[in-house]
Structure formats: structure tokens, C-alpha cells
Write a structure and sequence with these properties.
With about 140 residues, the chain is of the alpha+beta class. The protein has a single domain, classed as Alpha-Beta Plaits (2-Layer Sandwich), CATH 3.30.70.141. It is built from seven helices and four strands, in the order βααβααβααβα. The protein has a four-stranded antiparallel sheet with strand order 2-3-1-4. The protein is globular and about 35 Å long. The structure holds adenosine-3',5'-cyclic-monophosphate. The site of adenosine-3',5'-cyclic-monophosphate (CMP) has 8 residues, from loops.
């Protein structure tokens, strides 16, 4: 059954290009409530741990180097049907395939530098939120 939470990161490309505020505004305007948020730069070990599921994929090394190249925003978001609705808001992983008006279409340049992450299932939303936030850092 769908839960009402998802997890996101605003990635180093979007932060570096000055799109952090616009992306947060799009997220809030779409009806998501921020239940936890931090502005941090990941270590290599933290990025490798987060993306461990992709360890065997050919893009893993580049993905990790990119994700540690600058600060990110990590957040837990709440809304009815959060996982699915957030993935609609951000658009396809490859921004050239993302629909007009989606966050990736507006702010991303490539499949690597694709501006935002969004959990792909309720189970992963829980795991990913727990990876970044303790029970005292969310409400
Ligand atoms: P994200 O949703 O953060 O999850 C894994 C990331 O790997 C993905 O966004 C992309 O930025 C990146 N990536 C790079 N190449 C690929 C690919 N071929 N397929 C899926 N993800 C890719």
C-alpha cells in the first residue's frame, strides 16, 4: 500500500547552478511538506553506501564522483501518494525524456547530472530516509 512519504536529494549540479531555491519552491508548491532537511556534502563512503544497489552498474563510479562533487540537499517529503506523485513531479531519469514542466526537464542537463533524486518505492523511501536522518531529525 502507498505510504505518504518519499525521500529526495537536490544534487550537486542543481545546487551549483543556483536552482536549489526554485526546486524547493516547486516541491512545496506541488503540495509536499518537508518533514526533515539537511544541506551537506557527502563523503565517498556515504555516497557509495547510498547507491550500493547500483554497485555493479557501469555508471556507479561516475555517479559516486558526481554525488560527492559539491553540496546536496537531502529531505524527507510528505504528501498523499508521495512516491508516485514525486516521480511525476521530477520526470524521467534522463532529462531529455522528461515531460515539459517537470523538475528534471527544467533544471537538469544529463542522465548523470539530473538535478534531483526521488525514491522509486515506499520501501526504498523508508530505507533512504533512514540512511540520512535519525528519529530526532524528522517530524
Ligand atoms: P537517481 O534517481 O539518483 O538514481 C541513480 C542515478 O544514477 C540516477 O538518478 C542517474 O543520475 C544515474 N545514472 C547514470 N546513468 C544511468 C543509467 N544508465 N540508468 C539509470 N541511472 C543512471
Amino acid at each position: 500500500m502507498a505510504t505518504n512519504r518519499t525521500f529526495t536529494m537536490i544534487k550537486p549540479d542543481a545546487v551549483g547552478n543556483g536552482h536549489m531555491g526554485s526546486i524547493l519552491n516547486d516541491i512545496i508548491s506541488a503540495g509536499f511538506k518537508i518533514k526533515a532537511m539537511k544541506y551537506i556534502q557527502l563523503s565517498q563512503a556515504q555516497a557509495e553506501g547510498f547507491y550500493a544497489i547500483h554497485r555493479e552498474r557501469p555508471f556507479f563510479k561516475d555517479l559516486v564522483s558526481f554525488m560527492i562533487s559539491g553540496p546536496i540537499v537531502a529531505a524527507i517529503l510528505e504528501k498523499d501518494n508521495a512516491v508516485e506523485d514525486f516521480r511525476k513531479l521530477i520526470g524521467a531519469t534522463d532529462p531529455s525524456k522528461a515531460e515539459e514542466g517537470t523538475i528534471r526537464r527544467k533544471y537538469a542537463k544529463s542522465i548523470d547530472a539530473n538535478a534531483v533524486h526521488g525514491s522509486d518505492s515506499d520501501e526504498n523511501a523508508e530505507i533512504e530516509g533512514n540512511y540520512f536522518f535519525s528519529q530526532f531529525e524528522r517530524f
